[in-house]
Every structure is written in C-alpha cells, then in structure tokens.
Design goal:
Blueprint lengths: L5 E11 L1 H14 L8 E13 L5 H9 L3 E8 L4 E2 H13 L5 E4 L4 E3 L5 H10 L3 E5 L9 E4 L2 E4 L5 E2 L5 H4 L6 E4 H7 L9 H4 L7 H4 L3 E4 L9 E3 L1 H7 L11 E2 L1
Parallel strand pairs: 1-2, 1-5, 2-3, 7-12
Antiparallel strand pairs: 4-14, 5-11, 6-13, 7-11, 8-9, 10-12
Helix pairs in contact: 1-2, 3-6
C-alpha cells in the first residue's frame, strides 16, 4: 500500500467516570494509537455529560484524555438533559464538518485487550469504499465467522462481513470501531435526539433502504480471541443502573 497521510478523528461520548475513562484511553493508546504508522494521526472530539461519580468533574475527563491524545473539540454539558443520543449527534456533526479521512468511534467504557493494526483497518476501507464501519470484536472469532449475538458474519478474506439480509438489524453497532466519514455525513441529520442512535442506524423506519446500501464488518482474523471488553456494564450493575431500551439513552 502506497501510504499518504491519514487523519483519524476519535469521537468519544463520556460521563464522569474517571477510572473507566482512564482504563479506556490508556489501553487504546498502548495497543492502538501509539502503534499506528507515522503517516496516521489521531485527534479527539470529546463530549462530556456531567453526570456520574459525585466527586468527579469535567476537568478530570480532560486531564485524563490529554495524556493520550490531542483534543481538538470539546463540549461540556453541565445541565440536564444528559443523553447519549444528543452527545452522539454533536460528535457526528464535529466529524461531518472536519477535514479528516476516517472516524474512530469510542465510548468511554471499553478496554482494548489486544493490539490493533491500524494500517490493516485502513486497507479494508481503501479496498471497499462502500464499507460504512469496521468494529472490533467483543467475542472470540471462529475460523470462518464472527458471531455477533445470534448472527454470524462470514470471513471474506479481509474482515468478517455482515450478510446483506441482516444489515438492517445488526449492520451498525456502537462498539469501538472505524467509521467511513461519508457514512456519517449522509446520516448525521437523520439521527433523532429522542431515539437510541444505534437503533436508528440499524435502518428502522424511513432510512432502511439507505442503510442497506452500505457494507458493515468486524475487524480481526480467524481464530483470534476478543479484542474489547465492556467495562461499563460492571459499573452500572454495582450501582443498580439499568440501560433503557428504545429511548434516547438518557441519564438520570
């Protein structure tokens, strides 16, 4: 591959959970950002909803991420409503108007467990300009497929590809992954702040035909172990916080 320079904008919606944010960014810096070719640069758009740990502040979040990545835009939402959907829309708007090559979507509660070859991810997108997103696997990879909940994505020689017939149910996912900025520009004005963005981008309602025109995949190689771990689930469970369904993912 003849490498030009690539600029990747990381989009992170966050709440006040410094310990989780630290684990997320330290792991992604160690196993992904710092290992990228010199032709690849990373910048961060950070949204902070000021809800979470009572003894934490938005400054804590900024100090943590500044140790690992350059912050180019930041929004601090100190008053309700606190909503992941609204944060998601603000971040996508930052990406849609930025001069960048790709986006990496990274919520604040994921730990990276193994090294990611950024150059390899980019090659997948360069090979298929219709690829909307390539997410990291959260379960062990089979030799011939990646299992995403009850669905199987077969290996196509470069990545695990979402079958056409299930694109509208499982194509898009909010797990950490690289995103085609043109996909973001097409759909940024069609995400509803009162609806879960993940459900919206699975093709529900009026945008189903547009969603299935894109391709979706899972990064990795046959037989590998999982790449990411959901560290937010334990945080929620110990505090009795339930993730609501079919809502805007609001925080109380």
């Amino acid at each position: 591959m003849n490498w030009p320079d690539y600029k990747i904008l990381v989009l992170t919606p966050s709440t006040l959970r410094p310990s989780l944010l630290l684990k997320t960014f330290s792991s992604f810096h160690e196993k992904m950002f710092s290992l990228a070719p010199k032709e690849v640069s990373f910048e961060l758009a950070l949204h902070i909803d000021c809800v979470g740990e009572s003894n934490a502040t938005d400054i804590d979040n900024l100090l943590i991420v500044n140790d690992y990545i350059r912050v180019t835009s930041c929004r601090k939402n100190r008053t309700p409503p606190h909503s992941l959907s609204r944060a998601f829309i603000w971040l996508w708007k930052q990406a849609s108007k930025s001069i960048i090559d790709y986006v990496f979507y990274l919520e604040d509660d994921w730990e990276l467990l193994k090294e990611v070859n950024v150059a390899e991810m980019i090659e997948c997108f360069e090979h298929n300009r219709n690829l909307a997103t390539l997410r990291l696997p959260f379960t062990r990879l089979d030799n011939t497929f990646s299992k995403n909940w009850a669905h199987k994505f077969p290996w196509n020689g470069m990545y695990f590809e979402c079958p056409d017939e299930i694109k509208y149910t499982i194509g898009w996912c909010g797990h950490p992954g690289m995103v085609n900025v043109n996909f973001i520009r097409q759909f940024v004005d069609k995400v509803d702040p009162n609806w879960c963005p993940e459900l919206r981008l699975k093709g529900y309602h009026d945008i189903a035909k547009e969603i299935i025109d894109w391709d979706y995949g899972v990064y990795g190689h046959p037989g590998e172990t999982e790449y990411i771990k959901d560290i937010g689930r334990e945080w929620r469970n110990t505090r009795g916080i339930t993730k609501l369904k079919n809502t805007s993912w609001s925080f109380s």
